[in-house]
Structures are given as structure tokens and as C-alpha cells.
Amino acid sequence: MGAVDNTLGLYLSVPFCKAKCTFCNFASDAYPPERMAAYVDQVVSEVASSHDFAAKHGLAVPSQVDSIFLGGGTPSLLEPAQMKALFRSLRAGFEVIKSAEITVEAAPGQISDALLDALLASGVNRISLGVQSFVDTESRAVGRSHTGSSCLLELERLRAAGVRDLNVDLIAGLPHQTIASWAQSLQQAINSGVDHVSVYMLEVDEDSRLGRELIGPGVRYGANAAPTESLVADLYAQACEALNGAGLAQYEISNFARPGHASRHNLKYWTRAPYLGFGLDAHSMLLDAVTGGAVRFANADDLDGYMNTADAVDVERVDALEAWEESIFLGLRLIDGVSIPTLQRDYPPAWVDAMVETSRTLADSGLMSVTQDRVALTQAGRIVSSSIFGELLAGEPVAV
């Protein structure tokens, strides 16, 4: 029931944005520089105390780090000295192997020359650009300041500077998006030569400005121009066909990569391998040093709460039933699906048999594939994956 990997991933949350996108409901926002400086100091302190925290709670920390990911927000808004301070703290507290994948998320046009130098000096070898769309009308509609041409120039600049791996984030379902405009974004991503593309189907809720407007309704943030759910599904299918056809093979519901360029860090989440998160709303999963069972904990999701060091972190031992659920809904995000023999090794046979039986029923509807050794979602199933996960886990087995 434990993780399949005994190396550690590190995640740093940098919750600062130049401006908040209309669809965003993450724990991020535009903050003044003095808050950013204090935040970096707090994260550095958290990193320094992380081994003491693990020992206090009886958690095993793998000895080597093979992936680091700075996400946000927009980490590229940090000053070069702040970025270097974060990486110094990580390398002081952990053994980062030479071949580690080190990723930083960035907004196009917001990586200064000085910051790029700091990133390269800190060992960053992968940058993920939040392009979202190469079509200017779509970008403007959700509050993005870049243009399609500026994104392409940024990719060329980063590649010329020696960044080994580049990812582009795209969103299917933005206001004003059509089959034709989406094809343009996809082709631009392909033509750019990046080795990794992430495609997210737009999900909005009442915690975002666009979501409130959709419920409202209203027109200020483009809710009246947002594609229908059926069109978003068509856009997703269009992306799968275009990217797979261009050699960017889909390996997870939202991710496509050329051979050897899958995100090592994100794979830790889906395979339930150990990772430690630092900063606002950062989540972690380690193993109990005695039982080997998974243990999850998370930081506060509001800035004031995180900056208050007196706030306790809630540490939760994952029981067998919770581990089973995670193995299903995380493992099935992967295109390869989950291994039946591995499930049989880790969980009661009755649980596995019931899940496989339900999977066969879903396979009759074209939503899953079932072989002797594996169960996986089909492309049609990936579009409605949340519903399928619910059906597979309905009528939960009795915990053991």
C-alpha cells in the first residue's frame, strides 16, 4: 500500500501573481513586495525545520531528492536573490541528486534576464510556461497579458539560454474559444518544438470571478462566450488527436510528452511516491517510519494563516480504505492505468474483484479497457473521469 518510489520530490508554493486570472481559484493573488520577502523567509524557515517535523511525527524522509517543482501563483515574479535563497535552503536541507528534474512555473514575459541567470545557476533545467492560449483574444478574455507571438519568442529565448525541458500549459474551454482557434493553439504548441504539453479542461466554480459570473450570470469576464461542456469535450478530444499525432504521447489525463520527457515530479503524485510541500497550501505525503503506511498533511491555504507559525499542521494517517481509493483515482489518471496484480498484492481480493467487475461493465460502454493484468480509462472515459471514479468507488468495501 506504500509508494513505489523511494526518492523524494520537493514542491514549493509561490502564491504571487502579477494579476489573478478570471478562472483561477487557487491560493494565489497579487501581493506587495514586502509580503513576498517575508514569505520567502518563512518558507526557508519551514524547509530548515522539516526534518525535525518528520521526526516528531514518526515519518520517514527518503535520503535523495530527484525532483523539485516551484509552482504557484507565478514563481517567476520572485527577485533573483529570493529565488537563490529558496534553492540554497533546499540544497542545504536535502541531498539533491545531480540528475534531478528541477521545474519552475513561469508566466510568459515575466522572466527577467537576471532571474533567468539565477534559475540556471540554481540548477533549474525545466520551465513550465502558463501560455493557456496562443490566441490573443482568448488570453485577454481571462486576464492574461501576453500575446501568442510573445510566448513563442519566450520559448526561443529559454531554449537558447540552455533550458533543457520546456512545457506549455493550454486550457480547453476559455471564453471565445472555437474548434478553429483551438486548432491554432495546438499547432503553435507543436510547431514550437516543446517536449511537453499540458492540456486542462476549464473547470470554474463559485470561488473564481468567471465561475461567479457563470452562476450569476454576467458578461464582464466572458461567461457569455464560454464554450459549452460538450464543446469542451470535443476540444479535449481534438487535443488528444493532434498532440499524439505529432509525437507528444499522452501519458496522463492532462499531459503529453515526447519520449523521456514526462514530468518526473508530477508522476510522484499519481503513483503515490513520497513528496514534501513547502509554502502556502502546499501538500505532502510521506510514509510512516514504522508501518510504512502513507501519511498526508497540508499547510494553511490563506497567507495570514501560513505566516502564523503557531498554526498546527494536521497530520493524517491514511487508512487502508483511503489508500485503496487513492490507488484507484490517482492510478487511473495514467494512460497505462493500474496493475491488477499490484492491487491484489496490496488490498483484499474482494475489493479488487468488485472494482474489476465494475470496470468490465464500463468497458462495455467504451469508457474503460480491461485486460488480464490492467484496467485503464479510454479516451471517452478520461473526459468523464470524475464520474467513473465515483462509480468505481461506489458501495465502498468494509475497511480492514
What is this structure, in a nutshell?
Helix content is 41%, strand content 22%.
Give the name of the CATH architecture of the largest domain. Alpha-Beta Barrel
Bin the helical content: 40-55%
Total helix count? 16
Average pLDDT, all residues: 90
The CATH superfamily label of the largest domain reads Aldolase class I
* End-to-end distance: 13 Å
CATH class categorisation of the largest domain: Alpha Beta
Shape: globular
Number of strands: 16
Major β-sheet profile: 9 strands, mixed
Uncertain segments: none
CATH third-tier fold name of the largest domain: TIM Barrel
Order of strands in the sheet with the most strands? Answer: 8-9-7-6-5-4-3-1-10
**What structural class results from the helix and strand content?**
alpha/beta
Q: Could you say how many structural domains there are in total?
A: 2
Strand content: 15-25%
Radius of gyration: 21 Å
Structural topology:
Layout: E1 8-14, H1 33-48, H2 50-56, E2 59-60, E3 64-72, H3 80-93, E4 95-106, H4 113-121, E5 126-132, H5 136-141, H6 148-161, E6 165-172, H7 179-191, E7 196-201, H8 209-215, H9 229-245, E8 249-252, E9 255-257, H10 264-271, E10 275-278, E11 283-288, E12 294-298, H11 303-307, E13 314-317, H12 320-331, E14 338-339, H13 340-346, H14 349-364, E15 368-370, E16 374-377, H15 379-383, H16 385-392
Parallel strand pairs: 1-3, 1-10, 3-4, 4-5, 5-6, 6-7
Antiparallel strand pairs: 2-11, 7-9, 8-9, 11-12, 12-13, 14-16, 15-16
Helix pairs in contact: 1-3, 3-4, 7-9
